[in-house]
Design goal:
Blueprint (H helix, E strand, L loop, with lengths): L6 E3 L6 E4 L6 E7 L2 E6 L4 H5 L6 E6 L6 E7 L8 E2 L3 E5 L4 E5 L5 E4 L6 E4 L14 E4 L6 E5 L2 E5 L4 E5 L5 E3 L1
Parallel strand pairs: 11-12
Antiparallel strand pairs: 1-2, 3-4, 4-5, 5-6, 7-8, 8-9, 9-10, 13-14, 14-15, 15-16
């Protein structure tokens, strides 16, 4: 369910091996170099409208042991912007791209501002699919995308592509 923790299952039988504590309300998760990183969002749409927003968290867990490795809080982590390369985890917070160490969760770098504003819409609009210049539209039919490949991190949002160095977050081009 929506608030249940991420589960490790036996692939052949579907039997539950373990539930990973601290991962309840995970919206996304990735596995990199034996570390499961979950994006945990305690917020609900109703709570946000009432001004009751809480920080989101990246939670890193060993799926083999269930041991919590680290937790990293952020006011915002845009959907579909969680990526890792075996050394670092990267995400976009609505303003900049952040990098944290995969094994420790320690901050590594933050990029310069990518220059888009963020707009949240409650419902899809077939006549306006969401791509607006310099605006990241979060709606049921549209979200930004971030990938890490070799020595670059690429972020696409608001009809704009920002590419930064995976080593230090320095802007390469847009």
């Amino acid at each position: 369910g929506g608030s249940a923790p991420v589960s490790v299952l036996n692939a052949a039988t579907g039997e539950l091996i373990r539930a990973l504590e601290g991962t309840g309300r995970a919206e996304e998760f990735i596995l990199s170099d034996g570390v499961l990183v979950a994006l945990v969002n305690p917020n609900t749409p109703v709570g946000l409208r009432r001004g009751q927003g809480q920080s989101m968290r990246l939670v890193a867990v060993s799926p083999d042991t269930g041991k919590l490795l680290w937790s990293h809080a952020a006011d915002m982590i845009l959907p579909l912007t969680l990526a890792a390369d075996g050394k670092q985890v990267v995400y976009h917070d609505g303003k900049v791209i952040h990098s944290v160490d995969l094994k420790t969760g320690s901050p590594r770098w933050a990029s310069p501002p990518t220059g888009q504003k963020v707009v949240v819409r409650d419902r899809a609009n077939a006549d306006r699919p969401g791509a607006e210049k310099s605006t990241i539209v979060l709606a049921p039919q549209f979200a930004p995308t971030l990938i890490i490949y070799e020595d670059v991190v690429a972020f696409a949002g608001g009809r704009q592509l920002n590419v930064v160095s995976a080593a230090d977050g320095r802007e390469l081009w847009k």
